[in-house]
TrEMBL record:
Classification lineage: Bacteria, Pseudomonadati, Pseudomonadota, Gammaproteobacteria, Alteromonadales
Chain residue ranges for the region called Disordered: 388-435
Protein name: Superfamily II DNA and RNA helicase
Helicase ATP-binding domain location: 32-207
Membrane-traversing stretches: none
Keywords: ATP-binding, Helicase, Hydrolase, Nucleotide-binding
Ranges of residues in domain DEAD-box RNA helicase Q: 1-29
Amino acid sequence: MNFKSFSFAPEILRAIDECGYQELSPIQRLAIPHVRKGHDVLANAQTGTGKTAAFALPILQKLIDNPKPRTTANARVLVLAPTRELAEQIANSFERYGQYTDVKVAAIFGGVDINTQAKKLKLGVDVIVATPGRLLDHINSCNVSISNVEFLVLDEADRMLDMGFINEINTLMSASRNDRQTMLFSATYPSEMKKFSTSILKNPKIVQASKDNATAETVQHVVYPVEQRKKQELLSELIGTKNWQQVLVFVNFKETADEIVKELNLDGIKAAVCHGDKTQGNRRRALKEFKEGKVRVLVATEVAARGIDIDGLERVVNIDLPWLAEDYVHRIGRTGRAGNSGQAVSFVSREEEQTLEEIETLIGSKIRRIYVPGYEVSNRDALVKRLHNKPNHQKRGGRTNNPNSQAAGEARIMNRKKISNVRKKAKGQKLKLAK
């Protein structure tokens, strides 16, 4: 089956052909007919399998089939995304697919000039792709109305819930018309998302191109047991000895990302950083240089786990395992896309063994371990056995998605630093008194 089977307009077929698309992916083959028929859709598919085209192409066709005058500050399509990078990527896809149509697209997200966005919205657009917070800013400023939105898409919905956007999403949905067609697309499907989907979808068609929380079959998973303090050194060692050419590295903290980039550059390995403290322009530049091969390594925090689409990316490295097992699926989903092979590499310290077990349980398979001489840690089996025998481990209820998980983790570390500084200051004052 190919795209011509769905009787897309010549303008769309021409754009699809120029994008190099030929055969439909499973998610496209299953979702497009339901979207074309006007059904609400709940779609679960592996990252990198063509989800954007699965909703963008049929929506564009419906706009062509039912043209309406473009009015100031109104839109017919709203796509919500959790991050700036993903919003920009989806908007670019809509523009590519609709380049031979009259459809106007606006990407709305923070980190850039809000006035420039306001001018574009007031001229009138058909499709808005936005992050929830910035879109609400425009609505409150009367720059745009979504009261006439006919098609609402929530992409990477689970991530939006993790990031605490539930209130913003509910506000936006209440501001749109009740008879809209709603589509929810996600790579993972935790219990919180199941509850959320039942509250916003009406008799949805369930589209499941893969089992829940699955990773692409083209991705090879490996783990390097290593002491926490030696992780940066091991990264440089592997990049050099194995001649890794394009490596996307994930860490949990911005400070760690900056440190790794500094060390890699000192080792003669060109690296760039991408995290929330960097401006949108800096993040775009870092990603562009990485895609073009000007830098060999891109080190990123969770902010980059969604929305980075790099053709043929061979390898993703987790210096730190994510706090949520589901986030592992999203991180390593940057490789092995569109049928290409890829490798997911994770550095695991003693303290992260329990998290690794949760990831293995989630993806339904054991991950192969590779031991590098000079970087060994104590025996894993003995450690896990000790963990399992602890009462707290036996009573644990397992991890659940927590929208504040990363913020809470960072807050705990900041609190520890503050306590340490207070103690040091108090100790210094005592010494002065003693003198």
